Amino acid sequence: MSATDTIFALASGAGRGAVAILRVSGSSSGAILAAMAGRLPAPRVAGLRRLRDPGTRETLDQALVLWFPGPRSYTGEDSVELHLHGGPAVIAAVAGALTALGARPAEAGEFTRRAFLNGRMDLTAAEGVADLIAAETEAQRRQALRQANGALAALYGGWAARLTRLLAHQEAAIEFAEDDLPTDLCDRARTGAAGLRGEIEAHLADGGRGERLREGLLVAILGAPNAGKSSLLNALVGREVAIVSARAGTTRDVVEVRLALAGVPITLADTAGLREAGDEIEQEGIRRARSRAEEADLVLTVFAADATPDAETLRWVGPDAMVLANKADLVPAPAMIGGVEALAVSALTGAGLDALRARLTESAARLAGASDAALLTRPRHRAALTEVVAWLGDAETAVMPELASEAFRAALRALGRLTGRVGVEDILDVVFADFCIGK
Ligand SMILES: Nc1nc2c(ncn2[C@@H]2O[C@H](COP(=O)(O)OP(=O)(O)O)[C@@H](O)[C@H]2O)c(=O)[nH]1
Ligand SMILES: [Mg+2]
Q1: Which of 139, 201, 241, 255 has the highest CB neighbour number within 10 Å of its CB?
Q2: 245 annotated as a binding-site residue
Q3: Distance between CA 310 and CA 409 in Å, rounded?
Q4: Which fold has domain 123-206+376-432?
Q5: What percent of the chain has pLDDT over 90?
Q6: What is the pLDDT of residues 78-137, one digit of tens each?
Q7: Is there a contact between 199 and 159 (Cβ–Cβ < 8 Å)?
Q8: C-alpha 248 to ligand 2 mean position (Å)
Q9: pLDDT, tens digit, 9 for 90 and up, residues 189-203
């Protein structure tokens, strides 16, 4: 696989459609288009052409074709788009012709990888493109679009520029110690390091909102058997997803549904009721319930208003939990359970469900809702920036100018890995692995 090959891929979704878009990128793009379509249209202007088989000259399709001479293209290379009739046979015939003319099918993410390698975007923007394609909700789309448009690239690029300046000052202080440079160069580098470290720390202290929005929230419903967990899940999503029964121990595995609140994708997980009794299968279900609750961003602890709160469920009442007193239609629900305010609901009558939905929406917005700030979105970002912070701390407390210099250099390398500007060979595969073909 060479990075100089001319590549092609279906850029639109697979299957039948009104239009299918084949994308071609690489130095032979123009020649390939000319061989199939004759005259090239003006750059970036659609032209209607007959596409012919290069061997037999048979017409394969009538298509809109676009010609993007590099570097003003998505990849930065000469590129072509063919807007075909969207049938599998048409796509196969044109793909066959492209192969005959020397192009090869692209690998997943190869177009965006080339865009990155040609300096059209940094790594965080490339990740934004992948997230934009995967976005399921409004808030996700906004966050991904901002990142694809270079919001993180600009922020991190600015920090890299400042770090480079700090390093230069520090180096100058070492090199020209004897000369009459300002004597406070070392001090200035230290103050600058402290200022930058503060900004990065503030960026890191975002409560994981960007990462949570990208991943979606996990909300686990937990409680004793028969508290009404499955009924609540069904009532919240408005359909019968989980089996409801008066028999304890009906739900034995984790049942999950997806919904969106405040533009945040949420996985709502119904779980097996917590109790000691039950057979092997139920005990495995309970083990899964606990482990899902441990991973959850939010736990809904469900108690039956007409029963004494059980010790097992009480253990899950805490800062990341919302306490519900279900079956409030049967008896007056207690205002507090386990020392925490309980929301009275009835999965049966629907009472209190609007309030529950509002509370959930509020939590989703607080934990992961859309924000105007450019938020980091991946563990990779967090790890690299945490490293930068540590090196800056080292630079501030270094006992020798040479050590401060080394620390600045290490900080720059960590930041460079984040944006893909230095030493990135090893992480390219990781970043581009989750792309689809054609992007
Ligand atoms: N009266 C009343 N019964 C409910 C309510 N929610 C659930 N139930 C009943 O309680 C029983 C257990 O419900 P289920 O959802 O299976 O509980 P789970 O074991 O916690 O999943 C079923 O007979 C439900 O019909 C409620 O709000 N009010
Ligand atoms: Mg159940």
Answers
A1: 139
A2: yes
A3: 57
A4: Four Helix Bundle (Hemerythrin (Met), subunit A) (1.20.120)
A5: 72
A6: 999 999 999 999 999 999 999 999 999 999 899 999 999 998 999 999 999 999 999 999
A7: yes
A8: 8
A9: 899 999 999 999 999
168 burial via Cβ count (<10 Å: 0-12, 13-18, 19+)? middle
CB of 236 closer than 6 angstroms to any ligand 1 atom: no
Each residue's pLDDT tens digit, 7-16: 999 999 877 8
Q: What is the CATH number of domain 7-106?
A: 3.30.1360.120
Q: 326: Cβ below 6 Å to ligand 1?
A: yes
Distance CA 112, CA 287 (A): 42
> Does residue 429 contact residue 380 with C-beta atoms inside 8 Å?
no
How would DSSP label each residue in 291-347? HHHHH-SEEEEEEETTSPPPHHHHTT-STTEEEEEE-TTTSPPPSEETTEE-EE--T
Measured by CA distance, the residue closest to atom 7 of ligand 1 is: 228
Which among 364, 317, 334, 38 has a CA at the least distance from the CA of 213?
364
Cβ < 5 A residues, ion ligand 2: 229-230, 251
Strands 7-10 and 264-270: unpaired
Say how far apart CA 37 and CA 232 lie, in whole Å: 60
Q: What is the pLDDT of residues 297-347, one digit of tens each?
A: 999 999 999 999 999 999 999 888 999 999 999 999 999 999 999 999 999
Choose the CATH number for 214-368 among 3.40.50.300, 3.40.50.720, 3.40.50.10090, 3.20.20.70: 3.40.50.300
Name residue 19's beta-bridge partners: 85
Give the 3-state secondary structure of residue 215.
Answer: helix
